[in-house]
Amino acid sequence: MPPSELHSLPDALFSADGVRQIDRYVIEQQGVDGFDLMQSAAHAAFRRLVRHWRDCGRVLVLCGAGNNGGDGYLVAANARRHGLDVSCVAVAPTEKLSGDARKAWQKALADGVDVVSLGELDESALETLFVQAGLIVDAMLGTGVSGAPRAPFADLIDRCNNSPAPVLAVDLPSGLNATTGAAEGQVIRAAMTVTFIGLKAGLFTGEGVAAAGEVVFEGLGTESAIPVSGQTPVAMRRDWVRIRNWLPQRPVNAHKGRFGHVLVVAGDRGFGGAGLLAAEAALRSGAGLVSLATRPEHVSAALSRCPSVMVHGLIHGSELPPLLASASVVVCGPGIGRSAWGQQMLEQVIASGKNRVLDADALNLLAARVAVPAENQILTPHPGEAARLLNCSVPEVESDRLRACSRLHSLYGGTVLLKGAGTVVASGSEPVDIVSGSNPGMATGGMGDVLSGIVGALYGQLGDPARAAVLGAAAHLRAADLASESRGFMGLIPNDVIDTLPRVYSESEPGREREDV
């Protein structure tokens, strides 16, 4: 999603229960009629439908049993009243409908919508509906549903995903956990999700990033209720456009001593490139000085590639303390391996007490140690490394990325940046942060090394590990997005991202509002 579109969304992200409580507060305490609210939601979704798919042809609306299904019936009613060719399938038996959902079904019938029960359709008739659909509206399973979808929903989700027609999800893609962003079974892959009342955290991390498509928010006039409803967000949504002013403006008399000295400790035999990627990313992210401590055999290649980096070849960890003494931030881990050399390097870094960013094999080595919390460190695990640090499985991490990141912070202190689509950052202050967006071109070796260098450089400049982690993840993603505009996703390499970083940071330069850091 382009930054301009993300910028228009609210920052506060809520759990499924939190949004339900806000909805209940609006109805019970502010006297808003629930059916009127449902009609407003359906009208907002229909407006988006017409705006984005004006000439879509036949619209197929799939309705479940709860209020999400009620939204769907009213979307179908709106479509019918505006002369669209609409087919509406009651996936759940209509005799199970109650309350506002039942009113919505009755209104759809009154407005001339031909609602057909799924049980009345044979395979051929159902297949015909999907073949004829130019657009599918998913209103099957809402925020109140958890676990893997069961029959017949699972089959219909598969049919939607295999259809060439785009899917508009109402409030939430069916099969997605609104709080965690996990999908325990089949999940709708929507082109757009129109969500209401409060933004759901699950739309912005994990499977939610791919399932939701473009996220559009409709507050339905309830925004004023959130502060007084007693519900607090579980996460804050961050994107580059909203937080780029965290970077302080550089004075005209700036000098290198003001922007930190980053020491990158990286690159055992066979992994020399990892340290160089991190070091060059730190330079491109504004570090005043960058040093690289690596294996001696990597020195000449590193100097040839980037002479601005001060490169030191080390044979043993005992040689590291003099370099640590002059550093303000240490990035340790890219390509250090798990042999004695890497272990010695990590031991020295931890013993120094310096502000540090630990990544890659430093995290794998850390997982084998007794956890000792340190407030001045940033850990940047991917889900596999997070699983080792937590002594659990990758699926357990991905089943609730927010909780996994918070658990890591509880164990290790400092700031934890859990990588992946919808990066999560936990630093002890609630709520956690989620960096909006993802880029499939970043799924290649070395991208994490670039991120560690970026974060290290920003830590040196800001002095705030939490802000450095969030800003670093956002800048990293923004650089990848800009690089992808000219190069595409497939074949994007870490150097493409590094080369684009100055363009990213130029977007935060004078002329924009900023805040003190």
Features:
single chain; 517 residues; alpha/beta; twelve-stranded mixed sheet; 19 strands; 42% helix; 16% strand; disordered C terminus
SSE layout and pairings?
Layout: H1 3-7, E1 12-14, H2 16-28, H3 34-52, E2 58-63, H4 67-81, E3 86-90, H5 99-110, E4 115-117, H6 123-132, E5 133-139, H7 153-162, E6 167-170, E7 192-196, E8 199-200, H8 207-212, E9 214-218, E10 235-238, H9 240-243, E11 261-265, H10 272-284, E12 289-294, H11 299-305, E13 310-313, H12 321-326, E14 329-332, H13 340-352, E15 355-358, H14 361-367, E16 377-379, H15 383-390, H16 394-399, H17 401-412, E17 415-418, E18 423-426, E19 432-435, H18 447-462, H19 465-487, H20 494-506
Parallel strand pairs: 1-8, 2-3, 2-5, 3-4, 5-6, 6-7, 7-9, 10-19, 11-12, 11-14, 12-13, 14-15, 15-16, 16-17
Antiparallel strand pairs: 1-10, 17-18, 18-19
Helix pairs in contact: 3-4, 3-5, 4-5, 10-18, 10-20, 14-15, 18-19, 19-20
Largest sheet, in brief, is: 12 strands, mixed
The gyration radius over C-alpha positions equals 26 Å
> What proportion of the residues is helical, as a percent range?
40-55%
In DSSP terms (H or I, runs of 4 or more residues), the helix count works out at 20
| Shape by Cα distribution | elongated
As a percent range, the share of strand residues is: 15-25%
Report the span from N to C terminus: 28 Å
Main structural class: alpha/beta
Task: Walk across the major sheet and give the strand order.
Answer: 8-1-10-19-18-17-16-15-14-11-12-13
Runs in which pLDDT lies below 50 for 5 or more consecutive residues are: 512-517
Question: How confident overall, as mean pLDDT?
Answer: 95
**Total count of strands:** 19
